[in-house]
Amino acid sequence: MTGGPHSTRTTCPYCGVGCGVKAMPDGDGGAAIAGDEAHPANFGRLCSKGSALGETLSLEGRLLHPMMRGDDGVLGRVSWDAALDRVAEGFFRAIAEHGPDSVAFYLSGQLLTEDYYAPNKLMKGFIGSANVDTNSRLCMASSVAGHRRAFGADIVPGAYEDLDEADLLVLVGSNAAWCHPILYQRMQTARERGALIVNVDVRRTATSEGADIDLTIAPGSDAALFSGLLVHLADHGLIDRAFVDERTSGFEAALAQARLIAPNIAAVAAATACAPETIAHVFDLWARSARVVTLYSQGVNQSAQGTDKVNAILNCHLATGRIGLPGAGPFSLTGQPNAMGGREVGGLANQLAAHMAFDTASIDRVRRFWNAPAMATREGLKAVDLFDAVADGRIKALWVMGTNPAVSMPRADAVRAALQRLDLLVVSDNLIATDTTQSGAHVLLPAAAWGEKDGTVTNSERRISRQRAFLPLPGEVRPDWWAVAQVARRLGHGEAFAWRGPADIFREHAALSAFENDGTRDFDIGGLAAIDDAAYDALEPVQWPVRSGQPGGTARLFGDGGRFFHADGKARFVPVAAPALAAATDAAFPLILVTGRIRDQWHTMTRTGKSARLGSHLPEPFLDVHPIDALRLGLSERGFARVESAHGGATLRVRITAQQEPGLVFAPIHWSGQTSVGGRIGAAVQGFADPVSGQPEMKATPVAVHPVSFVTQGFALTRALPRLERCGFLAHATVKGGTLTTFASDASHDALLAMLAPLFGGAAPTMDYSDPARGLRRLAWLDGERIEALLFLGPGGTAPDWNAAAAAFATGEIAPAARALLLSGKPVDGIADSGPTICACFGIGRGAIEAAIAGGCGTVAAIGAALKAGTNCGSCVPELKKLIAQAGGAAEGTPARVAADAA
Ligand SMILES: Nc1nc2c(c(=O)[nH]1)N[C@H]1C(S)=C(S)[C@@H](COP(=O)(O)OP(=O)(O)OC[C@H]3O[C@@H](n4cnc5c(=O)[nH]c(N)nc54)[C@H](O)[C@@H]3O)O[C@H]1N2
Ligand SMILES: Nc1nc2c(c(=O)[nH]1)N[C@H]1C(S)=C(S)[C@@H](COP(=O)(O)OP(=O)(O)OC[C@H]3O[C@@H](n4cnc5c(=O)[nH]c(N)nc54)[C@H](O)[C@@H]3O)O[C@H]1N2
Ligand code: SF4
Ligand SMILES: [Mo]
């Protein structure tokens, strides 16, 4: 369905907010992008990543044909037939020789529901194993497990509208300002009309800028906080007795356990390392606010105790009956665009399909529905165990689809090594070169990317939306479901996989959800099982359940007396364990490493990495360190640090900041072997999994940190990607006009220069400036007035400032008169150096914003009026507020922060 003469209405491929997007193809492979005003997730707004989608569509680096590793070990182009034969053969042989559990799929919450359905059906119904897991194990598994324990089904009960109605919003382990920006803006709108926001994190983030209370807790202590809240509610007579008696079970046991963990405010204060007054204030607010939404994300899920953290939160909502009501409920924020859809089709190894579990009745039901010859009868291996089984040779053939485990799995070095051991590694991806395709893959299958693929996704509020194609399939690219169906056919199951397109798969999936359901199972979209192709194409966003006869879907569950999905129809309180991290710090590893996301990059950067406006916000992998730790460890601002755990390490740029707590360091997850040397932080992250959900703790790894120094630091600005070797630190970022590569090395200036030479066919630089006394060497390659490349080298102790050079490089040309300044490191006349980019939409840098503030712009609105910064997507508003605050002004709408703790 179109949203204008030449525009296609589709859904953003990034976060779980699931914003509606209008794409207007330019006929040249690109497209103009705008928010879809009619989509209820965003009403036309897009964040910085969504706004920049048009810059990520180029075919550069795309895998456009199947490839196969030859006897010489080199990947070469082959036909689809040859590639599919090889995959089918490899799976067939492994199954014949080692049984069905010797093969596995590792999937992704970025697949469409239809793509996801196909491998799950093949593995669980026709191969006879449940070894299908997904990167959602690293993302949502603890929420899934917590929901199932409490509600008897994996349900997010509320809707985004609840944010508009709530009086109190509590964010737990969520940097929504950067990770769910459009929802965060909705929360800020709620705040403008008087709602309060409490932010529970282990450090201060962009989300803190728009919070009324910043509760900076000790890592992993969330279960103590919410146990304390449950006790507080009980002791103040705030339990909804009628709700608890009629609709739940297990309250007394959960409360008794909560009393052991957190008997009073003092105990909570001690466990969380927060001031007792702040805890008391937050508890009081929560107790007083009937309309409270508690939103949680990876600071909760990715923990050694992720499931207990989830249930500690759910316990408080159940105890007060604040669930499924307008403005009240627990709200698990999903990460990926289709984290939900993956759960719906059974993408997790411990679920069957359509939210059914591996119980006898469900196994039999699905067998009959699929007419399946080889049903899996027990749960399969969860991600961490799955890759252990790859490492020790139990898994022989693995098909990875839509995820990059060589970067994103904990103990990433061990995972990368394990992949090399497989008899058959198949990788379906959009790109040729990822760390995973380069981990010894035997077959690469070219998958349709966003804009080319067609199907559905489900966002955080259970809303199913269409992703629609608006570009032709390039090269020999095919959708993922098609590749799976072709392999299934080769394995002898053609009939069960004879879909003509995604609409066929969707109808089958919808029919399965309603099959022998009769209201007993939560996931039911039977009302969509009979839609024809035209209705599927035109499908408007709708929240499940969409039961037969209820085409409008369901905004909220459980609020109107509706039953829970345990056999007795009641919800369950779950007694939770006392907080503990998987591993404690010790003398060898005295600090805790927290990992997470930055505003303008998505995961391993395979798509956002292509956009210049996203590349310049934070172009290097970094380590945030508190000033006290920096002093103790001998780290300097913009110097380098080596982070080491028992598993591996990374070399990162140091940022010293009081946003960080002492004893804790933070590193972003986005850099890979493709975009950096040394920036792959997953190598250091431990793999300890939550015992209930199997989700690994990725927010608290004990590490050692020490300073690293290099002889030389420098940067290159080049039109093509340079290959620099012998660098201990290196990062590539896409900037206007090409690539910025920053690096540090012990190689000589001449050696570094020689490494760049191939980019210019060995041509000598046009300008060569050196200042041996200061250890400087700066070179420019010009073609007439066009700047081809700039290389700045300097002493290892100083980080060169690339902003002025990048500004000149971006304009592309340099007038002869201005040449002299080009290598000065100073702004070239007429080209403003405005410092690191803050506002990605308009490319406004920090320098320009600071100047505007100094010139009297004391509010976000005033900066917007002067520079336009912050006036489009709004993702940078938290940073604008921070710059105003740093300059001593008062950001509007920011009430005095309540001190989080004594420190
Ligand atoms: N820009 C951007 N947005 C994204 C993504 C992206 O890659 N880039 N990815 C998407 C995906 S898949 C996901 S899963 C989401 C993740 O979204 P978030 O969960 O919001 O993001 P993270 O940065 O992983 O972690 C959130 C916060 O948890 C805090 N934390 C760490 N340990 C604890 C703890 O013990 N308790 C508490 N309370 N907090 C703790 C961290 O300090 C961090 O600020 O983002 C989605 N949105
Ligand atoms: N230390 C640490 N590690 C983490 C996390 C953390 O907070 N800390 N967060 C975890 C979380 S929550 C997540 S969700 C993961 C994300 O980690 P990954 O899933 O590994 O990251 P992506 O870069 O999104 O990888 C997606 C890959 O699929 C390709 N792709 C995109 N669309 C398609 C498609 O339609 N079909 C196919 N076949 N390929 C496609 C992309 O090119 C890319 O290579 O990282 C996890 N790892
Ligand atoms: S908030 Fe941003 S990344 Fe998330 S769906 Fe909306 S536009 Fe996409
Ligand atoms: Mo995620």
Task: Describe the fold and architecture.
Helix content is 30%, strand content 20%. It contains 30 helices and 36 strands. The protein has a seven-stranded mixed beta sheet with strand order 6-5-17-16-15-7-8, sandwiched between helices. A seven-stranded antiparallel beta sheet has the order 27-30-31-29-34-33-32. Strands 22-26-23-25-24-28 form a six-stranded mixed β-barrel. β32 and β33 (776-783) form a beta hairpin. The structure holds ligand MGD (2 copies), iron/sulfur cluster and molybdenum atom.
Helix content: 25-40%
What value does the average pLDDT take? 94
Beta content: 15-25%
The helix tally amounts to 30
List segments where confidence is low: pLDDT < 50 over at least 5 consecutive residues: 890-903
Assembly type of the shown chains? single chain
- Spatial strand arrangement across the major sheet: 6-5-17-16-15-7-8
Determine Rg (CA atoms, Å).
Answer: 27 Å
Bound small molecules, by name, code or SMILES, are:
ligand MGD, iron/sulfur cluster, molybdenum atom
Task: Quickly list its features.
disordered C terminus; 7-stranded mixed sheet; binds iron/sulfur cluster; binds molybdenum atom; alpha/beta; 36 strands; single chain; 903 residues
Structure summary:
This protein has 903 residues and is an alpha/beta fold. It is built from 30 helices and 36 strands.
Tell me the layout of helices and strands.
Blueprint: E1 2-4, E2 7-11, E3 20-25, E4 31-35, H1 48-51, E5 67-69, E6 75-77, H2 80-98, E7 103-107, H3 113-127, E8 132-134, H4 141-151, H5 161-165, E9 168-172, H6 176-179, H7 181-192, E10 196-201, E11 213-216, H8 222-235, H9 241-247, E12 248-249, H10 251-261, H11 265-272, H12 276-288, E13 292-296, H13 298-301, H14 306-319, E14 329-332, H15 339-345, H16 360-370, H17 383-391, E15 397-401, H18 405-408, H19 412-419, E16 424-429, E17 443-446, E18 455-458, E19 463-467, H20 480-490, H21 502-514, H22 533-537, E20 542-543, E21 571-572, E22 591-596, H23 612-615, E23 622-625, H24 627-633, E24 640-644, E25 649-656, E26 664-668, E27 676-677, E28 701-708, E29 712-718, E30 727-735, E31 738-745, H25 749-756, E32 767-771, E33 776-783, E34 786-795, H26 803-811, H27 819-822, E35 837-839, E36 844-845, H28 846-854, H29 860-867, H30 877-886
Parallel strand pairs: 7-8, 7-15, 9-10, 9-13, 10-11, 12-21, 13-14, 15-16, 16-17, 22-26, 23-25
Antiparallel strand pairs: 1-2, 2-3, 3-4, 5-6, 5-17, 18-19, 19-20, 22-28, 23-26, 24-25, 24-28, 27-30, 29-31, 29-34, 30-31, 32-33, 33-34, 35-36
